[in-house]
Design brief:
With 342 residues, the chain is α+β, with helices and mostly antiparallel strands. It has helices at residues 2-15, 29-39, 43-49, 118-129, 135-139, and strands at 18-25, 54-62, 79-86, 91-98, 101-110, 143-146, 152-153, 165-172, 180-185, 190-192, 227-234, 237-245, 259-265, 268-274, 279-281, 297-299, 307-308, 311-312, 325-326, 331-332.
């Protein structure tokens, strides 16, 4: 009798309806956007930034680390950190505060160089477009700017600071120019060119590789909120429950892709965290690049691009699920970054 009961339970579970529930977790995007808007109006911050040219680079929640073996449910983030770069004084300001009291902040000065944002890169291209030697080619679209690796250049000053210099790659569109990677000094708003058409830590080959630059903005880790609890049930039985974090809000200095945390299977913790904090890419030699010049290099994992998928949708008999059946390869905004980070 006991065996028959177990068998019926398995049969019932096998044919039970599968459901997925998604529950937002942590601060909303609107809450982070509001903090970002009001931050630069704070009197205390204005004292640090008076008469300086600066930019708010990012604002993100600060995670509270949970003990690995703790069975307690994680609590939503309660603190935030904003990053501002001061171009006039070549410094980074870190602003820490509580989400519930965003007007009470702690300000710390740092010599670190955060990754450039899409808006900051756009400003670098605008500065480059005014250059007497290269500007005309950019304005006439004979040179296509793109974001190369490494993203930042700049030598350290005697006092330990670094003038913020953003790398900008220039691809010839009509074969009239040489592929080149230059530096745009954001503090002085000047252009730095190199002897071999690229800085020592990069290469600008005449035989370029990768997809054409789509000139589409991506979602970086600037002001992104995005954590949800995902619960997967079969009938009344909870199979999986975990916290999913979007790449733009993932942990790590340069992001870590789609991040899974507190992964439970049938109520038992099987994984504390799954992510990809480092991604090294190595390309095999090709006809256009016999020495494998497209790599290796290291990329960051906090950007989200757009994908265009052409295909058909289908509804299954067991549940309302839609599937894409691609008829041709997808066209992605993200593309392989040319250059080599040494």
């Amino acid at each position: 009798m006991k065996q028959n009961t177990t068998t019926r339970g398995k049969t019932s579970l096998r044919h039970s309806e599968t459901s997925v529930r998604i529950t937002p977790f942590g601060p909303t995007q609107a809450a982070l956007d509001e903090i970002a808007r009001d931050l630069l109006r704070l009197t205390e911050l204005k004292k640090h930034l008076q008469k300086s040219r600066h930019r708010l680079l990012s604002i993100a929640t600060v995670e509270t680390e949970t003990e690995l073996k703790s069975s307690r449910a994680p609590v939503p983030p309660s603190r935030f950190r904003a990053t501002i770069y001061d171009y006039t004084n070549n410094r980074t300001l870190l602003i820490d505060g509580r989400l519930a009291q965003p007007r009470k902040v702690e300000i710390t000065e740092s010599a670190s160089q955060p990754l450039p944002t899409s808006e900051e890169f756009k400003e670098a291209v605008e500065i480059l477009a005014r250059d007497k030697q290269l500007g005309l080619g950019i304005r006439e679209q004979r040179l296509q700017p793109y974001r190369p690796m490494p993203p930042l250049l700049g030598e350290q000053l005697p006092d330990g600071r670094t003038e913020r210099t953003i790398s900008v790659g220039l691809l010839p569109t009509k074969g009239e120019h040489h592929h080149e990677i230059v530096g745009v000094n954001m503090s002085r708003q000047t252009i730095i060119r190199f002897k071999n058409h690229a800085p020592p830590t990069a290469q600008a080959h005449s035989q370029t590789c990768g997809l054409h630059y789509a000139n589409q903005s991506t979602t970086g880790g600037q002001f992104a909120a995005g954590q949800v609890w995902i619960t997967i049930k079969q009938g009344s039985t909870t199979l999986w429950k975990f916290l999913a974090v979007r790449p733009a809000a993932s942990s790590g200095t340069n992001g870590s892709g789609v991040e899974l945390r507190f992964v439970d299977y049938r109520g038992k913790r099987v994984l504390y965290r799954a992510h990809v904090p480092i991604l090294n890419v190595k390309y095999d030699p090709t006809l256009s690049s016999p020495d494998g010049a497209c790599g290796p290099f290291r990329d960051w994992q906090n950007e989200e691009g757009m994908i265009q998928a052409n295909g058909t949708t289908r509804e299954t008999s067991s549940a309302r699920r839609f599937m894409f059946k691609a008829r041709k390869p997808c066209s992605c905004a993200r593309w392989r970054r040319r250059g080599i980070a040494m």
